[in-house]
Amino acid sequence: MARGDAPRDSYHLVGISFFILGLGTLLPWNFFITAIPYFQARLVGASNSTTRILGTNHTGPEDAFNFNNWVTLLSQLPLLLFTLLNSFLYQCIPETVRILGSLLAILLLFALTATLVKVDMSPGPFFSITMASVCFINSFSAVLQGSLFGQLGTMPSTYSTLFLSGQGLAGIFAALAMLLSMASGVDAQTSALGYFITPCVGILMSIMCYLSLPHLKFARYYLANKPSQAQAQELETKAELLQSDENGIPNSPQKVALTLDLDLEKEPESEPDEPQKSGKPSVFVVFQKIWLTALCLVLVFTVTLSVFPAITAMVTSSTSPGKWSQFFNPICCFLLFNIMDWLGRSLTSYFLWPDEDSRLLPLLVCLRFLFVPLFMLCHVPQRSRLPTLFPQDAYFITFMLLFAISNGYLVSLTMCLAPRQVLPHEREVAGALMTFFLALGLSCGASLSFLFKALL
Q: Which transformation does this protein catalyse, written as a reaction (predicted)?
């Protein structure tokens, strides 16, 4: 709902721009993890000219560098670090510098990754350069995402939804790009080069979209608002931010994280001895109210990142070599996960179950730990300790369906329930705490992936 005196978003250009910016913020992470087979092939010294490096799994003892574990860990640690440092960075560095600087840095680092496709290099230096790129790219992505969230705070909620819909589709976009590269029929080196050029084009489009915003009257009207002016819209924004999007695009947990303090649908009643205060709420008091929900969020992401993609990317088809075995992991692991995760997040737009007072939520979250042994007992070749109890492809596909949709739903549910457990003036602190615990869960899961892979 826009203000009555606001200009129109002609041709929806601002909405399209924020959708592309949302897509651009999560392209780096998704393109790196989807291309794990390419990196593993390079790290075992496979020749680009003789090996189809996209869509080929290299697992077991050959994966001496533990690439899929390290790429997950070094992608999530920057998120945790910049979650802790965001207040300092955002006060010291102008917004335009943070956004454009991050986009340009990501573009240059992805260009380096694409260039390395054509460069013959021994595995050790290639691994070091790639890990440094992963760390820096995700550091800049964390700054970029936080800065864009700040800008979206001054705009109608529809634009937050479009931005986060773009983020939600980034994984699907990366998986489809991988499949198209594999199906193109060109040689392996050209296929990999085309794959890594794709996110460069996406980042360039994001830069163009951001540069166009100051030239669009609708964007200028909202983005030029000072904090004192934005406060005049506070009640109106609160009323709309947690409603379903008018265009039918469901809300996502990232949107809820952005607007945790704006949920007016259900407010906890104040205790007689706990009047609403206008001062700064206590972090400890807020934590006492949401600790169980925050713990559930940590556990959901811990389970997810402990096996995805470190273990799931190692699963191969049990069928004889052919087209299906070549496309099995990109389709059944990455594409299927991203689609079902997005659908799971969408479900909270229609119902929230269990509610914040139910003890069933921790039980559901803990049940997801069953996915760890289930995936570890799937068809992972060259294992040295555990047996293969679920060799058929149907087992892995079924596990992935349940794993992905439960991840999306439970993440979205916990992020929706947290603001309902605190007083209205405490929701900003609750939002900051939940964002921190989200990053903590991702980092814990990435760290545990080393242990689970070693147990194979």
A: hypoxanthine(out) = hypoxanthine(in); uridine(out) = uridine(in); cytidine(in) = cytidine(out); uracil(in) = uracil(out)
| Spatial separation of the C-alpha atoms in residues 274 and 284, rounded to whole Å | 15
User: Which amino acid, 229?
Assistant: Q
Whether residue 67 contacts residue 38, with contact meaning beta carbons closer than 8 Å, is answered with no
Q: Is residue 6 part of a domain?
A: no
Task: Look at residue 440 and tell me if it is in a domain.
Answer: yes
Same domain, 255 and 225: no
Q: Which residues pair with 390 in a beta bridge?
A: 378
**Residue 206: which CATH number?**
1.20.1250.20
Burial classification of residue 232, based on how many CB atoms lie within 10 Å of its CB (0-12 exposed, 13-18 middle, 19 or more buried):
exposed
393-417 helix and 360-367 helix, angle to the nearest 10 degrees: 150
The residue-averaged pLDDT of 111-115 equals 92
Residue 243: inside a domain, yes or no? no
Residues 6+ apart with CB under 8 A from 240: 1, 156, 157
Whether 58 has a pLDDT exceeding 70, the answer reads no
With respect to residue 239, please indicate whether it lies within any of the assigned structural domains: no
The domain containing residue 220 runs over which residues? 11-234
- State the DSSP string of 374-406: HHHTBS-TT-SSS--SB-SHHHHHHHHHHHHHH
Contact 362, 414 (CB under 8 A): no
Cα dihedral across residues 291, 297, 300, 305: positive or negative = negative
Is 230 in the same domain as 258? no
Q: How many C-beta atoms lie closer than 10 Å to residue 60's C-beta?
A: 15
Residues 220 and 325 in one domain: no
- Determine contact, residues 15/35, Cβ cutoff 8 Å: no
User: What residues contact residue 364 under an 8 Å CB cut-off, 6+ apart?
Assistant: 354, 406, 410
Co-location of 204 and 63 in the same domain: yes
Regarding whether 261 and 159 lie in a shared domain, the answer is no
pLDDT tens digits for range 17-26: 999 998 988 8
Residue 264 Cα distances to 94, 100, 234, 268, 434, angstroms: 32, 34, 12, 10, 18
Indicate if the pLDDT at residue 258 is higher than 60: no
* Prediction pTM value: 0.79
The count of structural domains within the chain is: 2
Helix ranges restricted to H, 213-261? 217-223, 227-231, 234-240, 253-258
Yes or no: say if 414 and 346 are a contact pair by the CB < 8 Å rule.
no
